[in-house]
Amino acid sequence: MNSADLIRVHEGLRLQMYKCPADKWTIGYGHNLEANGISKAAAEFILQEDIHAAESQLRQYFWYENLDPARQAAVVDMVFNLGIAGFAKFHSLITALGDADYEKAADAAKDSKWYTQVGKRGIRIVEILRTGA
Questions:
Q1: What are the structural domains of the chain?
Q2: What is the pLDDT of residues 91-119, one digit of tens each?
Q3: Marked catalytic residue, from 20, 44, 49, 55
Q4: Catalytic annotation present for 20
Q5: Which of 36-59 are b and which e, b meaning 16 or more Cβ less than 10 Å from the residue's Cβ?
Q6: Which of 11, 44, 49, 55 is an active site residue?
Q7: Which residue from 58, 66, 55, 72 is spatially nearest to 100, judged by alpha carbons?
Q8: pLDDT-based confidence at 75, cuts 50/70/90?
């Protein structure tokens, strides 16, 4: 048995954060987030998984595959930020994207509470939705 196998046996796997017996936020196989955080490599891996999940969720919309790469990136960013349930509340935006009416889609994003909360992110997303660049 190697060290990884032994740690897996002792720690067990938990995919949600939890408080360990020492009252520290922990995840995975006993990884202490408070003391160790995560590595840049782990953060990049998680980001790619989250992007893949957002793209998969967006495929439920017929228009997603028809968007140019910049607009796809913009709506993936929105789903990453809001979750698919939050994004689904943008009825006017979703309808406008389905109609390929990018001016209307950008206006719908700009006229939302989300836009006022996210600062420069909202400004960038609206510009990308409007122009595709």
A1: 3-36 (no CATH), 40-131 (1.10.530.40)
A2: 999 999 999 999 999 999 999 999 999 99
A3: 20
A4: yes
A5: eeeeeeeeeeeeeeeeeebbebbe
A6: 11
A7: 66
A8: very high
